[in-house]
Amino acid sequence: MAATGTGPLAGVRVVELAGIGPGPFAAMLLADLGADVVRVDRPGGAGLGVDPAHDLTNRNKRSVIIDLKAPEGPGLVLDLVERADILIEGYRPGVAERLGVGPEDCLGRNPALVYGRMTGWGQDGPLAQRAGHDIAYIAITGTLGMIGEADGAPVVPANLVGDYAGGSLYLVIGVLAALQHARGGGAGQVVDAAIVDGTAHLTTMIHAMLAAGGWQDRRGANLLDGGCPFYGTYETSDGQYMAVGSLEQRFYDEFVRVLGIQDEAPARKDLARWPRLRTVIAERFRTKTREEWTALFEGSDACVAPVLSLAEAPHHPHLAARATFTGHGGITQPAPAPRFSATPGSIHRPPALPGADTADVARDWDLPGLTVGRPGPAGTHHEPGANSRTGGLS
Q1: Which of the four, 62, 148, 207, 354, has the lowest number of CB atoms within 10 Å?
Q2: Residue 54 CB partners (closer than 8 Å, separation 6+)
């Protein structure tokens, strides 16, 4: 199998120090776009308890096993670093330094290196050394407090908002911007990607609306947080749901027409009558199944869509037509995104099994020392262990 893809990052070399969550996902995104990502796995696994053959965040990568606590471990990583463009690590602040693979050591060997650091709390601040996970990070940024019904508890949005939107994507933006700087004649540098920073940054528009008086600082009371009756979800007769986003007047007019409530829906601009409008919409949606409503809204500009499950999504006609999901190695999975007209990304390798690619990496990166007395591929599962988004080794 090819060591690298054909995407826009073909030729870029990335060293990923194994962790869990947003770091591996960021490295997967780079690999999907064509980078040659070598994941440095630790003996015994990363502590997720997931069969490596099904860990899709390790697709398109290659894996070597290096024990960073062994005498020769840090030197082997630095040998890889010397040949790399980007390094990604997700340890707690100070751990990489104690292991001998911190920024000073790595940039000493490769001054043009982009050293990407993925943590929840960041490299400094009162909470920097604390363990944490997505839910805590989005909680203190105000983001979690925005989500949910007005009279209910905050609703957890899986770990998508913090780990992956505020974490992985900001790390990728950061390391690619720093790589552009380095390749333009500048020096390498450290990218401190903290989930709290990225998640806070995601709320920029909401803060603008809050400052302008167009957003109430409480759940379920605003245009985009479920407080608005024509921007939310409604149950159908079969216990499924439809999503409604008819914000603009022309889309709303189409919505009430297809729904069949033109004559009984109160004026949408009368906020005092929003509860009544919500009741009318809800009662109407409960008269038909999700499939029936989907068919009725098909082809309209009402901005209404069925709420699908993860298993249903790949079969939606639009997503199927665009091949938004694809099959590889017998696993249905999201296809690489975004799309490029000249240098498309691809899935060219299944999830990397720990240590399985040591010989190939040693050859391709001209590092024969990787294979001297090195352990073979790890087994088919990781042993469970304590870890967090602030880092694994301590």
Answers
A1: 207
A2: 331, 351
Residue indicated by tokens 């939310």: 232
Cβ burial of 212 (10 Å; 0-12, 13-18, 19+) is exposed
Beta partners for residue 116, in sequence order: 88, 191
- Active-site residues, by number, are 133, 163
Closest of 268, 259, 325 to residue 288, by C-alpha:
259
Nearest to 103 by CA among 50, 35, 178: 178
Tokens of 284: 């109407």
For residues 40 and 109, what is the distance between their CA atoms, to the nearest angstrom? 18
Q: The whole model's pTM is what?
A: 0.91
Helix, strand, or coil here: 255?
A: helix
The strand pair at 189-194 and 114-119 is best described as: parallel
Taking a C-beta distance cutoff of 8 angstroms, is the pair 25, 163 a contact?
A: yes
- Bridge partners (DSSP) of residue 194 are 119
The pLDDT tens digits for 32-61 are: 999 999 999 999 876 566 788 999 999 999
Would you state the structure tokens that stand for residue 139, as one six-digit string? 């909680």
Distance (Å, whole) CA 303 – CA 306: 10
Cis peptide before 338 (omega within 30 of 0): yes
For residues 291 and 232, give the distance between their C-alpha atoms in angstroms, rounded to a whole number. Answer: 18
What is the rounded distance in angstroms from the CA atom of residue 265 to the CA atom of residue 108?
A: 68
Q: Which long-range contacts (CB under 8 A, 24 or more apart) does 131-134 make?
A: 131/388, 131/390, 132/388, 132/389, 132/390, 133/159, 133/388, 133/389, 134/21, 134/159, 134/161, 134/162, 134/163, 134/195, 134/389
Task: Report how far residue 266's alpha carbon sits from residue 331's, in angstroms, rounded to the nearest whole number.
Answer: 48
Query: What b/e string do you get for 178-203 counting C-beta neighbours within 10 Å, with b at 16 or more?
Result: bbeebeeeeebbbbbbbbbbbbbebb
pLDDT of residue 138: 98
pLDDT score, position 6: 82
Residues sharing a CB contact under 8 Å with residue 15, sequence separation 6 or more, in sequence order? 38, 40, 77, 80, 81, 84, 86, 87, 88
